Amino acid sequence: xxxxxxxxxxxxxxxxxxxxxxxxxxxxxxxxxxxxxxxxxxxxxxxxxxxxxxxxxxxxxxxxxxxxxxxxxxxxxxxxxxxxxxxxxxxxxxxxxxxxxxxxxxxxxxxxxxxxxxxxxxxxxxxxxxxxxxxxxxxxxxxxxxxxxxxxxxxxxxxxxxxxxxxxxxxxxxxxxxxxxxxxxxxxxxxxxxxxxxxxxxxxxxxxxxxxxxxxxxxxxxxxxxxxxxxxxxxxxxxxxxxxxxxxxxxxxxxxxxxxxxxxxxxxxxxxxxxxxxxxxxxxxxxxxxxxxxxxxxxxxxxxxxxxxxxxxxxxxxxxxxxxxxxxxxxxxxxxxxxxxxxxxxxxxxxxxxxxxxxxxxxxxx
Length: 366
Hints:
- Strand 3, helix 3 and strand 4 form a beta-alpha-beta unit.
- By secondary structure, the chain is of the alpha/beta class.
- It has a seven-stranded mixed beta sheet with strand order 2-10-9-8-5-3-4, sandwiched between helices. A four-stranded antiparallel beta sheet has the order 11-12-15-14, with helices on one face. The protein has a two-stranded parallel sheet with strand order 1-13.
- The longest helix has 38 residues.
């Protein structure tokens, strides 16, 4: 089976033999009492990569979002925090927002990646003196666009609020723009790509996709990260990242520094080749050069049969719905490890599957 379902975009697998050894998996203590060894050094390296002053590590983005929005709901209880959520935001960020909602925060939505819609929505609450908290993804694989972060920040500054970014998709893939690199350089994510340095920003991201490590980071200004760690509940009541995960993060950062830009170039070549082969079938995938390539089929239900045909032919793809519930959709996730021969095979099976779908229609309408 050729796998087009893995989100290990750069193809980093972190076999145990590649990692520095460890004598025990965990200290058995919460991070608030005794942070795992070297976690501070890894957090500092991630902060520098992302473009922030400080960072803290978490077991998952769910832990970090749940924790952060619990703090938002509590610290602004008297004035009732107003949280503006981009309608396309990833569900895990939304789950965190629900905790703030339960603690009395007001939650409003605004149109996906629409800075004008946010600005309009903010006017009433900013006039009443409420400081807004804006939540967005840095990059959306569904529409293949980057969030207009600078424009969002203009609105946030007007009200003295904060911008919280889920940058899981961009971290490890996108970086400092310029030159010939299609994804930019460094892999630091959305802040680096859009050249943003701002103390009003908090970035939460998983390393599980671009860097292949099931570990999460919260990055921001020194004051914001210090405040988060001081008030964190998950650092008291949940286990911190294991030593194995820290070793894998360490290795991912070493690889990224040594040959990350080369891996990103390889990834871009694979995605371009896949899109070129699709064009030969008069097909077009959404997603631009991002590794998640989504076919839009008419009717949409054709995706279900196509997914089955592909799987029967040894090609594993992702059958899913969009975040708004529409679909079904069929996606191929291309990684730097895919060989051209594997892409050729996938396109051949796809062509055969499309032909098989069309044959009954030809008989019916012939």
